[in-house]
Automatic annotation (TrEMBL):
GO terms for molecular function: histone H3 reader activity; transcription corepressor activity; zinc ion binding. Residues 127-159 form the ZMYND11/ZMYD8 MYND zinc finger domain. It is found in: Chromosome; Nucleus. Residues 161-183 have a biased composition (Polar residues). This is MYND-type domain-containing protein. One of its GO terms (cellular component) is nucleus. It comes from the Eukaryota. Residues 160-192 are annotated as: Disordered. Residues 62-125 form the ZMYND8 coiled-coil domain. InterPro entries: MYND_ZMYND11_ZMYD8, ZMYND8_CC. Keywords: Bromodomain, Chromatin regulator, Chromosome, Metal-binding, Nucleus, Transcription, Transcription regulation, Zinc, Zinc-finger.
Amino acid sequence: MITLASSVSTDLPIATVSADVTADIAKYTSKMMDAIKGTMTEIYNDLSMNTTGSTITEIHRLRIEIGKLQWLHQQELSEMKHNLELTMAEMRQSLEQEWDLLIAEVKKQLELEKQQAVDETKTQQWCANCKKEAIFYCGWNTSYCDYPCQQAHWLEHMKSRTQSATTPQQEADSEVNTKTLTNPRVPPLVFR
């Protein structure tokens, strides 16, 4: 059986040995910490010097890369601008072609309408005096819209009627009649 007194006496020498070991451990720990601290300081200094050179190199490399990226960006922008200009030119050309086709189509339609109007106009007779649509004929190529227009135009028209149907002697007589007669006989109008 172990008593309290015997256990206390045995603990004391162990505690003393343990204190010496602790002191030795503390001493060697301090030496090791100093060695580690020195080694770490050396490593840090070496890395700092190498990193500074390496950092400058890295910065230079990054600047070159940034320059390349900026150049690529400018190239892409230029290419996009060029493609946009090509697209716009194609669209403009397409619109101009479409516009030209529409203009040609409208011109063709207007020309057709004009020709129809001319053809319709050619089928009608026009008053020799006032150019309205004529409904009365006075000879084969002269028409009038009404009797007052025929009377107003008769003196001029009478010359062409008598020239084609008369001889030189009759022309002289006609001139005398025109001068002496103020109202020569007007032929009757034929309704169309």
